[in-house]
Design goal:
Length: about 130
Amino acid sequence: MKPMTALISAALLSAGLMSATAHAQQDPAAPTEQPQAAAPMTDISDQQLQQFADASEEIVVISQEYTERLQAAEDEASMQQVQMEANDKMIEVVEDSGLDVDTFNAIGQAVQQDPELMQRVQEMVES
């Protein structure tokens, strides 16, 4: 089993990539600024935390799979296509878990900043 921080980091990195791509897909002419960091959620239910844990596990697998495909891409267009496919899959996983991407990202930020939440997610992943 990988360390929990690696799981959370991979999930958040992937989620950050999702939100940036989702934003770019909505308005291709928009500048590529990073969104302002939202304040972390403070009222997270057990159900939301479980949804986050479940989605994070799947996102890590997708991220690993698509990282390999990205490294094998031969040109910029292929790389962009692989990134878009990965983002679409990750967004689908998050939404299938019952969360939206913004909530997933907010929970991820809260988990990174709160060791108690991190422990709860780790226990959910291990069970």
